[in-house]
Amino acid sequence: MFAKNRLYLIYQLIPFFFTNPEIKNKYNLMLSLLLKKSNYKIIMKNNVDITIPNSSFLTLLHLFHILHQCVYYNLKTNGMMEISFDFKNKFSFNLKNLNQETKNLLYILSDCLRYGGSVITPEDTETIQNKKTLKLYEIDNQKIIETHNGVKFYVKNFVGGIIESFVMGIHEMNDNENWNDKIVVDVGASVGDTPLYYASKGAKVYAFEIDEYSYNQMLENIELNPQ
Q: pLDDT tens, 128-146?
């Protein structure tokens, strides 16, 4: 079982290994995955190296995906990376300070691309926005992600359900359905992604979440959307 799990991790990264010339130590990295080293060391083409804990494999996968999709990136020796997918919108994060906000930002950029979406900055006035467009900016030094219809979430409180609801559109059974004054009950509301989706449609939502940490994150996200 151990060997199968290790091989599965390598299998997920192989498409990025052989199509991304920016990573110099591909084979050493695969060996680290196979032997389950405590950290994954990545050496980039410009000889700057970064280290990602093996507990953050999903973050490594997201990083490889966005490197595969980007048109430009710059990694400095202090770990700061600037990246762009269209030469217009640039995003920066510190890979040597992998806090939850940074991990979630990589998650957002990766999954939004995966499902045909785009992430822009407020300065971008050229990109045609649609239901799959997310806007990224900061308020009081905290990163905010905003959906096409103005629903806001703290990046630090991000979960995949936000992409599912607002980019993939998994709840859109009928675009013409009128949700005004209808009642929605969400049991297992997580960080408020589904409740805020239906509330933005005009529904009255009762949201329940048993996990205290997720519940508090939901309250913070709701406070961003008083309307």
A: 889 999 999 999 999 999 9
Q: Helices 2-17 and 26-35 meet at what angle, rounded to 10?
A: 160
Residue given tokens 């991990």 in the structure block: 103
What's the sign of the alpha-carbon dihedral 16, 18, 21, 27?
positive
| The predicted structure's pLDDT at residue 11 | 81
Which contacts qualify for 124-132: CB closer than 8 Å, 24 or more apart? 124/88, 124/89, 126/88, 127/86, 127/88, 127/89, 131/166, 131/167, 131/169, 132/167
- H/E stretch holding 40 reads strand 39-43
Please, which contacts does 129-137 make with residues 24 or more away whose CB atoms are closer than 8 Å? 131/166, 131/167, 131/169, 132/167, 134/108, 134/166, 134/167, 136/91, 136/105, 136/108
pLDDT digits (tens, 9 = 90+) for 169-200: 998 877 778 899 899 999 999 999 999 999 99
**Which residue has tokens 């990246």?**
83
Residues 222/182, Cβ–Cβ less than 8 Å? no
* 4 membership: H or E segment, kind and range: helix 2-17
pLDDT tens readout for residues 88-127: 999 999 998 889 999 999 999 999 999 999 999 999 988 8
- Residue pair 183/204 in contact by the 8 Å Cβ criterion: yes
